[in-house]
Write a sequence for this structure.
């Protein structure tokens, strides 16, 4: 009795030849769906590769336009920030804010694109075979590179997100800033009257008053040490953002370089003629 898994071979076949078996229709459907995902992942990866030069140019241009650089970038930034803060400590640091935006946008983009490439690699790993899994070494090395770079980007995103909370806490410590407190007083009065023309009468009235007080310390004079502390915080965040952006650009160019040089091995680790998953074909090999 023949089944859906009958072999499509002749009686004099070569026993060393890999044999394709007829698959149940449910598996054929599943395979077609997975093949569509593989092809889509390859197209997405290729798009990242093709737009890579433009992305790198944008990153390089952003880094070159940053205001403080060189061996004394830290002291440059702190000096500039101290001068600005003495006028208004509550004002946002425009240099840090602009660097914050472009860096975090770049990190988020890099993390997302790296995940796309990780999906591309994962869906193009061929079927495992007894004894070895040849052809996958390049894929595994590239996958590790992707994971390492993505984790660095995501860590930088997490760390830099704490900037505004830390800055707000530092500003709260400036005693020269006016502190306003308010007190609300609510009073209720009740009165009862009986035997009147309209009979017994009960009345209740409520009144509310609010008092606001504003106070300052240090005679309204700015504490220079706190100004320097805030400037140092801003300068450190600036340097951290620049470092994260530079690291992201360095990792991105290495990823693109490896992707371009090893595209064929990443997409078809066992060659285009291989029939298993990872070949871009649509057949299983048993």
């Amino acid at each position: 009795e023949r089944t859906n898994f009958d072999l499509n071979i002749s009686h004099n076949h070569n026993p060393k030849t890999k044999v394709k078996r007829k698959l149940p229709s449910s598996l054929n459907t599943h395979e077609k769906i997975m093949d569509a995902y593989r092809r889509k992942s390859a197209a997405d990866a290729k798009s990242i590769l093709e737009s890579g030069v433009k992305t790198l140019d944008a990153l390089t241009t952003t880094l070159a336009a940053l205001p403080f650089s060189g061996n004394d970038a830290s002291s440059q930034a702190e000096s500039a920030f101290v001068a600005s803060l003495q006028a208004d400590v509550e004002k946002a640091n425009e240099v840090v804010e602009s660097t914050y935006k472009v860096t975090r946008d770049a990190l988020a983009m890099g993390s997302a694109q790296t995940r796309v490439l990780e999906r591309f690699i994962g869906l193009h790993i061929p079927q495992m075979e007894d004894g070895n899994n040849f052809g996958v070494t390049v894929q595994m090395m590239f996958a590790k590179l992707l994971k390492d770079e993505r984790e660095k980007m995501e860590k930088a995103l997490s760390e830099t997100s704490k900037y505004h909370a830390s800055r707000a806490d530092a500003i709260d410590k400036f005693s020269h800033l006016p502190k306003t407190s308010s007190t609300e007083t609510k009073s209720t009065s009740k009165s009862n009257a009986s035997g009147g023309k309209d009979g017994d009468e009960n009345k209740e009235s409520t009144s509310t008053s609010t008092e606001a007080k504003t106070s300052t310390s240090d005679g309204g004079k700015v504490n220079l040490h706190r100004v320097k502390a805030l400037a140092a915080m801003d300068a450190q965040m600036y340097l951290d953002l620049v470092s994260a952006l530079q690291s992201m650009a360095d990792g991105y160019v290495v990823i693109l370089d490896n992707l371009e040089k090893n595209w064929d091995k990443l997409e078809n680790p066992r060659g285009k003629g291989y029939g298993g998953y990872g070949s871009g074909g649509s057949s299983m090999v048993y």
